[in-house]
Amino acid sequence: MPPTKLNEQQAEVAVNRRLLGLFGTAALTEPNPDPPRHAGHRVSTSHGKVLPEADEDAITATLRLEAWHQPAPSDETWPRTTTVPIELTSGKLNVDEIEQGTRPLDFRLPTSGRWEARLSWPTGNLERATVLVQFRSPPTHRQHPPTGDRFLRHGDGRADPARFRRKHHRDGYTLNPALTTRAPGTSPPCTSAFTA
Fold this sequence. Notes:
196 residues; mainly beta; Substrate Binding Domain Of DNAk, Chain A, domain 1; 5-stranded mixed β-sheet; 5-stranded antiparallel β-sheet; 1 helix; 2% helix; globular
């Protein structure tokens, strides 16, 4: 099944001090992440907050937000792309324009919880730029105890059964980790806060 876009929005935003922040409504009082350049990365994160950094001090940007139920199609035309995990307890997003303060966005994710955000943005000295942020809910895993079947539970509530071999223990059937596989078309959750 091809990836399906669940929601999208576009907004004009200001980039000040080379920074632009995105955060969930519930994370407003959480500590801000350190600026990416201090950590040697292009994006930094803290609980419920993502902070990408541009090459120049001030640009105006068109922020494109998208939510997908599977990974969005790859687009090699973006010179810079980074994927980070973000925990959004409300599903509502706000933008932090640094010197101009924070404001809510009309964009809302279908569910709250852990998401992966793929950020893409241009390089160089630009007066205008486009920043693309594509959200995807990573699949979670649960095991059906009586059978040992494993299900991939997606953010939209779908459950894809993926049968696994079992080995017998004295207390019943359990999964054999050496024989586990992923269902076709799925990817493991992002384990690093920074992947450039």
